[in-house]
Amino acid sequence: MNGITLTLRVLHRGERHLAHDLVTVAERHRTEHEVHHVATDLAGWSRDHVRRLAEVAAHHGVRLGDPPDTSSDSVLATLRAKASEAVAHRPGPGLLLLRDLRELHLAAAENSLHWEMLAQAAQAARDSELLGLASACHPRTLRQMRWTNTMIKNLSPQLLNSL
Amino acid sequence: MEEATDRIARPWGGRTPYGRHETWPARVDTFLAEGVAPDAVERWVQSASILHSDGDAMDIAVADGRMVGVRGRDVDRVNRGRLGPKDLFGWQANASRDRLTRPLVRRGGRLVETDWDTAMDLVAARSRELLEERGPGSIGFYTSGQLFLEEYYTLAVLARAGIGTPHLDGNTRLCTSTAAEALKETFGCDGQPGSYDDFDHADVIALFGHNIAETQPVQWMRLLDRLEGADPPRLLCVDPRPTQVARHAAVHLAPRGGTNVALLNALLHETIRHDRVDRDFIAAHTVGFEELAERVADCTPRWAADICDVPAARIEEAAELVGTADALVSTVLQGVYQSHQATAAAVQVNNLHLIRGMLGRPGAGLLQMNGQPTAQNTRECGADGDLPGFRNWQNDSHVADLAKVWNVEPERIPHYAPPTHAMQMYRYAEQGSIRMLWISGTNPAVSLPELSRVRSILTQDRLFTVVQDLFLTETAQLADVVLPAATWGEKTGVLTNADRTVHLSRKAVEPPGEARPDLDIFLDYARRMDFRDKDGGPLVTWHDPESAFRAWQRCSAGRPCDYTGLSYAKLHDTSGIQWPCTADAPEGTPRLYTDGIAWAHPDLCESYGKDLETGASQEVVEYRSLNPDGKAMLKAAAYLPPHEEPDEEYPFQLTTGRTIYHFHTRTKTGRAPQLRDAAPDVWVEVSAVDAERLGLAEGDLVEVAGRRGALRGRLRVTGIRPGLLFVPFHYGYWDTGNGSGPGPGTPGRAANETTITDWDPASKQPLFKTATAALTLVERGDGSPSPAPTTTASAPADGVAARPTAGGEAARTTQSPARFPHDPEEGVR
Description:
The structure holds 2 protein chains of 2 kinds. Chain A is mainly α. Chain A contains 5 helices and no strands. By secondary structure, chain B is an alpha/beta fold. A 7-stranded mixed β-sheet of chain B has the order 7-6-18-17-16-8-9, sandwiched between helices. A 6-stranded antiparallel β-sheet of chain B has the order 1-29-2-5-4-3. In chain B, α2 crosses α20 (518-529) and α8 (260-273) runs parallel beside α14. The two termini of chain B are 31 Å apart. Chains A and B meet through α2 and α5 of A and α17 of B. Chain B: Pfam families: Molybdopterin, Molydop_binding. Chain B: Residues 778-829 are annotated as: Disordered. Chain B: Residues 42-98 form the 4Fe-4S Mo/W bis-MGD-type domain. Chain B: GO terms for molecular function: 4 iron, 4 sulfur cluster binding; metal ion binding; molybdopterin cofactor binding; oxidoreductase activity.
């Protein structure tokens, strides 16, 4: 295993996690409608990244898995959504929301740094397929970070001053 | 020659054909109450319509201290004497016997009458308590698109610098926030680029999700007149319903709901592929063309055809129409603004105009429309989730400038985050951090999505709700304090329409009982709260409409919406004038961007922009690097599937909308007999194909059930797109047995029982066009048709029997030809 395949593996895991976490946060905060809908959309980006990483990794002789099944039919998903509806009238979950957004931001930042490494390594190795992958996906990771940052910026004045 | 017409049966009246580049002739429409002879009218008082965004100028007839009729103003640039059905008949609601005439307060669970002092003291005391205990973020204001400029501006000052809360927004969030956001994304700043006069010069007019025949009926009269004149325009209509626009269109596309971005990307793809672009304009005035071209490179008509369920050949025809026009006007409204990916789609229409160089000259007009009569004022006064005068909350020098106008410290004006949008305010109220909500001139218990949720928020004990309205609306019935307000004709103020035309509306009669103008109520509150500026003087220094207008003029000075060249006297003498109106442009400004993009420079712009798909804010550094010279920005967006798709349980897409005869939740139009009877109750539109498949027929009582609630109505079988249901959003509960919502013996009636709580991430406009639903039979009809009008988009399909909509004698209106006293525009061929 070389450094590139190692990075592919780590990034593949990171994007899988982020896809999963975005869906989990979307369900947990079903009553925060914007978070719910946009996080669900953004999970789609990470799932797409997982698929594309697996395709390119295969050309490097590495087998990586499919994106996580994030259909929200599972019992756990339903429980999370119900729990969110049950506490719709309480301020407490606001803190949990800020924590979740922070964790999503950090996870996306980690992926972003790995995309950076991959792009740099691809240039040095003159691997145009890999560079194409990083150029296509990295901007969307940065947009995931910008979204979590914006939500934290907009929500925290109200949520932290009303406890 | 004067003639009389039933303007319920013929909403657009008779024709006055005119040719391309000619002046649209005047025609004066007059309606007087039964038994009032023209010579019995004592005074005619200048005003303009507050039942849509067109800004139809009219004079109110007064006799014996009462309003007795209306007459269109032939001198006015907007309507040239014409009036629509709501203009003609809606004024009668002002004299309804059930107007609120005294303040009400809740005691022992019931609303009881009281005096103004008691009611206002209660509101002020609760405000002070909350400021003390929980801070300014516990107080929110939700206003309207139907007050006057002076009222919004006063409200903006007292909320933002008096209370110091970021929570002030209008119901304009539901109707026009995408228009504002799309203009900010493309031009860096709000401000309608085009003018209605562009309709006179265009050879192609494209209407995207804009049923202009019913939303701005007088401009539809203008298009009908052009269609009957020499060298008529060709129309492109994008609408899933068989609207009057669709019936007159050269190309009509009826896409699947929520797919506007896919369709528009295909139009851009074709425009670029055929090189129907203006390279010089792109180079001189835009940034981002290469990226846009790359992003739509794969968006072929065939690709979009699958997503939109529209034949690829039709998309190609549409692309040819807009791509080969030599003067293209595009208009955009709720079919885009209230649908999935609202801002992303509206911005693509801007992009189409920019790459074709269709901007800033007669006939090359872009109109991002709005729905409400004074929505434009909510936007410019900063009562809608922006700072006044299109100032940028992220730009410290803009905030400092505003602070100087108000003579307060900049920190007093919340600008650490964007002003809170309405949907988020309701979420904060739900979650308990907003404890007082002051609702003026709007009825969220019928107009917001997912009504069971809205009612659960408004009925919380911990939330103190103040409602200021003309009637005991569904929302007012849930309030803690109800303040009786005066309306147009009973107060003076200024209002601005969708093409920046400013009108003066004067007081004609006294308000009923103790009802007060909204301005007086806000001024009273400011006095009781004793808001001060930084030198200890009063924060609000004005005392009546005209002094409030002058205060706003100072705030607007040097801004895009500059009012400094206007005055009440000038508006009185001239009728409508388009802003900016300054010493340099004393007659107003027909078109923005005639000489380049004026307000997109990083130091000037109102917004640094957002990610169209996520809503994430951009910062000044990014904006500067993207657009250092302040050009128009071509922003691409990828199509994303809607958040709610039909499935086995809910197999239909569901969209809501309006009819020509009603406005909003019918608080006024439901009290004007001609309008009430033209569309007396809710109905459900379904396609002939779906009706036959389900064994349903015209007039059957059906239930429309969604994931969040259900409603019942009579079925109307039409030429609507198969797979789609339409329900008008006007009907609520004030005229049912149960008052404020469904209950025992009162099944669901409001369209918003079924809609989804979801909003566009960039404009924060809620989506009313993308819910899903099931349709089931409740009870066979008895052979009588549904209450849907037959004159409009809800007309029955061929072969379906229905009683033609008519108003009879009671709706007879005179129309007489007149000479439009102004010259055609200068600079026009």
